């Protein structure tokens, strides 16, 4: 029988990393994710791992790149402003085809913003975190259990596809306490890191990890090759949850903590006789666009509910592609939309249909 | 009569900045935009300005923020990896409602990538350069003349709307020499900077420049307020060029250097009897979505041609919203598509219609 | 008639620098010398100069080196811990034969120590501030007037002998207010900087500023050559003040603020019939060893009075070379010895003779 | 029977550190001491230790301070310019009464200087490495065996007297290979680190490690207290070697690699009938001044032979205090004086007596 432990979301990430064999962590403190560092600072030495507080976020991401190049499972974590600081390094990691896990426990922005939860780094995570043609695997947990299981999954995916993965959480999930079952998540088979620059011991040719290609043909080839892998991922690794979508006239798209609020709002709206359901993307990249397109054939309208001024709604619109209207409802700056306001939004939309 | 000067694109940016009263520049060298720094290092002292090579890109953007806060017209420039390093600072500038100009003379990515021209920072410029809900004004020059005139325009827009603007150029435009007429661009009226933190002299209350709001309501209000300004910009400041779209069955959407190649391809395809035209966005944000939507009513297909793996194509699709098919053609890694290959792409599409 | 201005010692340094044509200043704030930066931040722009607050002391000294290499008169200032941070740069400046002025407004040490005045960086200033065989010109003001006039003198000496000079002041002198006559100090003739790396304009061979010599013979030659200049300085530039030494049985050696206290103590001791005088070194390097040696022929004992645990006393002993006893009296950690305790020390010594 | 291992001097330092229980090392590469880092990077993980290459020398010394504060045995190493960069941190460590070992494998200076061996950081090591009243224990090995045994001794002394110790070596000793017997050096009893800030576990009052004292009386008391310990060290820990001084008319004072050359020169001069001997200081601070003073009673002259322009000669003169003449012979910039030139110098002096 599985043993459940009551933990904060931030701690669940940390413990899941260790449980998944990630024994290198490089961080720099920032609210609301500092518990990850704190937890690992205590735990890592006990399991023979390394938790290092770098002198800055820029240093932390470059140390992460170094450890990844040497073949270690490695994680870094920060919150919104710190992820911006890491963005050059993230692009380098992508350009070097290195696996690692970057945790973003989002807070309100832009700038210093606030310390309350937010989902306003969606654009950055899915499109622009770094310069150049590149993608991150982006996984969005919605419970403390998923903070753990998606950490494990992201580490596996990163290794399988040799690319950086991001766990896009938020301050509410980071601070929330729920029971976690560490036996519940299966491990995937990951390839051996024959490309790692971890010393040859005279046994093989020198490995090189590099993102610089002076010849543009070589650079283009390397990018095109990478996009073939991205296409594989879009085919094989999309994850989402559906809730009451079967008969839904209205489909809410929401991820993370927001999806939980939407479920309550859906139950309330159903009681009022409104047929509404939820599509919760678990992978934000690859985005569940095929499933949304298919729902668009039978539903009357979508609403993207986000803790931002509207970012994922672009991806919903791209998937729906004009088949039906796509609305948006959001709060920002650290405010979590209430069940009541989402229910009201559903009702308003239902009346207009 | 206007006097024209033969200049490199990078120099045109630099000279236009000075001509527009931008007397503060903070940079750090990176190919292919180093001529901007070099030019300003020589010219700024002669016009009473300041050109400072900072110790890093992170320092340069923070100095830019400081000068902006003090009410100076200020510019920084870099190329792709350097822009990633600046991204935390850019989000802070946006969050502080400060005007400044950030020049990105794009090179191939991700990572160190190459030193040849590219347009693969489109996503970053238009969506994810920094964390949080925020936008940049993004202007995309297509000639050395526009390197100058859009620099002037971007500085004015930044001041008018109190937000950072980006000139999104590329290495080809930066290195290309063409005649520039500095008398040709009109100056806009810009408001006085009554908010600047430049000393009170006992005459007014203390100004505060800040992006931190501990109370989430205050933070949300500040973001919502900012998005009202963004809506104004989307209404008033969209710029684009149309070329042979009147009767076009196929509309190419392309910006920057790529648009010039597309014009030649269009002329070639027209000779072959294909009705094809070009919509060239000059502002990438705000994106000319209304005009594209309106073209979508009468055209049969769009192709987004880009020097990337396909980024602006998302915005074209969002504007077209399913009204007709949207195709993509691109080269990446520093390779500029040739007139021949774009023409071939047009012909292939024309045959399939 | 000379016009006197009432100023703080720190301000007198700053104003004297400008009056002496030093238009470049690079600093970083630290108590008790921050007024120098503050004053120059306001004044420099008005006289066409540059006052830059660097990102750290290490940056400030390297900017100082750069400005010096380009032929500018340049000054940096700090207090004790900040001078330690600058020590690599100071050694580089010495090894490159570059002139500049480094101001040390000493506070108590070691470590963070305190913010009260001290003279405990004497060893560092005269012997070990940087690695390698090298010297600094070290001038020790004893009044606000000298804070100004020795700043001017140090800048001239640095230029004449192409080496870094240090003004070794302390927090008491920095904060003290006294009238200063800026017309009082003569300017020396300084050579043209034909070695400066300030652009050739096609008129001469490239100048090189360098401290790296891979061939040890070249390095030795460069050091030996420099020590010939040092020998010239020891012959020509020793400065000191004598006070009542003619008939003195006891000679106090003291510099800076301590020398002023010693004068009062001497007057008090003279009233008690004790023949005591003062030798005040104004240059700490070159040290007035010949004059002390000559006093040692006729006096019965020396006391070195310092605000430290005893550092200059080594130089006094080296000069006296066993001819008579050399005693020490000092306070440290920010405590200025009182007239009473110095008088008591004199009396105790007089009785033992 | 003791087992001897053939090793480079730099490696001997590294291995001796581990053998002495020093399991934390923080460094930054610089010729000619990089082998220490290289060796420890490989060995530390195998013995459960930590070898970290910091982002700069400044970071390395601050990490050293942190590890020392937490009660670890800790070492950092560098060569001349890097030691200058560490000087603020060294003063902080001294001001916090923390034990650690700083290795300086000297190269020619000032500035970048050269990469050949030198002894020109003597002044810095013995007097001015940091601001404020402070001392380092300074040990000067003269063989690869001593590179090892004095590393062990320095670590013990640092712990016993709670202060930083420096191993002042040079590039020749660092690169030289000789057999080392690691069983040969005795371990001293060191006190428990009850002052370490390593977590209270609820068992004791909070420890504080600090060098800041706002009250000058407290600061003075802390310095005076420290100087009492320094006096103990001067009484108990002086180490030197004498060679043929019994009947010597001339006593050479030389340390490190220079002392070995002087021994050969002494043998050559003895063959020529000159009575000459050697006093080799093993501790440079505390300096063997009593023993030199006592030799000064019976010898006719001293020569200080150094790889510098003359630095230790000050300490010889201070010890001799005029009892007989003190001469100097030196080479600098990376040149090791030859046996022939030292012999010639001895003969020249012998003739003049």
Would you kindly provide a brief summary of this structure?
The structure is a homotetramer of 353-residue chains. Chain A is of the alpha/beta class and 353 residues long.
Features:
homotetramer; 353 residues; alpha/beta; 7-stranded mixed sheet; 13 helices; 14 strands; 19% strand
Task: Write the SSE topology.
Four copies of one chain form a homotetramer.
Chain A: E1 4-8, H1 9-19, E2 24-27, H2 34-43, E3 50-53, H3 57-69, E4 74-78, H4 80-85, H5 87-95, E5 100-106, H6 122-128, E6 137-139, H7 144-161, E7 164-170, H8 171-175, E8 177-181, H9 216-236, E9 240-243, E10 250-253, H10 256-271, E11 276-281, E12 283-285, H11 289-296, E13 301-306, H12 312-320, E14 326-330, H13 339-352
Parallel strand pairs in A: 2-3, 2-4, 4-5, 5-7, 6-7, 10-11, 10-13, 13-14
Antiparallel strand pairs in A: 1-8, 6-12, 9-11
Helix pairs in contact in A: 1-2, 1-7, 3-5, 10-13, 11-12
């Amino acid at each position: 029988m599985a043993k459940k432990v009551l933990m904060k979301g931030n701690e669940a990430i940390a413990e899941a990393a260790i449980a998944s064999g990630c024994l290198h962590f490089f961080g720099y403190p920032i609210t609301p994710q500092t518990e990850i560092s704190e937890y690992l600072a205590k735990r890592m030495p006990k399991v023979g791992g390394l938790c290092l507080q770098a002198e800055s976020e820029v240093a932390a991401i470059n140390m992460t790149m170094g450890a990844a190049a040497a073949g270690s499972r490695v994680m870094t974590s920060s919150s919104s402003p710190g992820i911006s600081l890491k963005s050059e390094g993230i692009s380098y990691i992508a350009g070097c085809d290195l696996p690692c896990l970057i945790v973003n426990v989002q807070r309100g922005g832009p700038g210093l913003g606030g310390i309350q939860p937010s989902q306003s780094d969606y654009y950055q995570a899915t499109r622009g975190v770094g310069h150049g043609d590149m993608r991150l695997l982006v996984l969005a947990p919605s419970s403390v259990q998923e903070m753990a299981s998606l950490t494990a999954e992201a580490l596996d995916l990163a290794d399988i596809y040799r690319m950086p993965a991001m766990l896009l959480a938020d301050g509410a999930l980071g601070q929330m306490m729920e029971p976690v079952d560490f036996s519940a998540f299966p491990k995937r088979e990951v390839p051996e890191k024959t490309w790692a620059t971890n010393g040859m011991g005279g046994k093989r040719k020198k490995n090189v990890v590099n993102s610089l290609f002076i010849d543009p043909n070589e650079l283009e080839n390397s990018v095109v090759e990478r996009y073939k892998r991205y296409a594989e991922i879009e085919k094989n690794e999309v994850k989402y949850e559906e809730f009451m979508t079967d008969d839904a006239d209205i489909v809410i798209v929401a991820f993370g903590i927001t999806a939980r609020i939407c479920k309550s709002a859906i139950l309330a709206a159903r009681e009022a006789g409104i047929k509404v359901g939820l599509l919760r993307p678990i992978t934000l990249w690859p985005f569940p666009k095929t499933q949304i397109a298919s729902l668009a054939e039978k539903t009357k309208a979508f609403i993207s509910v986000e803790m931002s001024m509207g970012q994922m709604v672009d991806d919903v619109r791209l998937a729906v592609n004009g088949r039906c209207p796509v609305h948006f409802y959001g709060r920002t700056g650290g405010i979590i939309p209430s069940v009541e306001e989402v229910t009201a939004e559903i009702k308003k939309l239902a009346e207009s249909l």
